[in-house]
Amino acid sequence: MLEARRPPDGDDSRFEQIVGESPALESVLAQAQRVAPTDSTVLIQGETGTGKEVIARAIHQLSPRCGRAFVKVNCAAIPLDLLESELFGHEKGAFTGAIMQKVGRFELAHRGTLFLDEVGDLPPGLQPKLLRVLQEQEFERLGSTQTQHVDVRLVAATNRHLTEMVKRGEFRIDLYYRLNVFPIVMPPLRSRRDDIPALVTHFVDKFSRKMGRRIHHLPADTMAALRSYDWPGNIRELQNVIERAVILANDGVLPNLVPKTGADALVVASRPSDGSGSPAPAPMTLRDTERTLILRTLESVGWVIGGSNGAAARLGVNRTTLINKMKRLGISKPGREETLAASDRQP
Question: What's this model's pTM, rounded to 2 decimal places?
Answer without folding.
Answer: 0.70
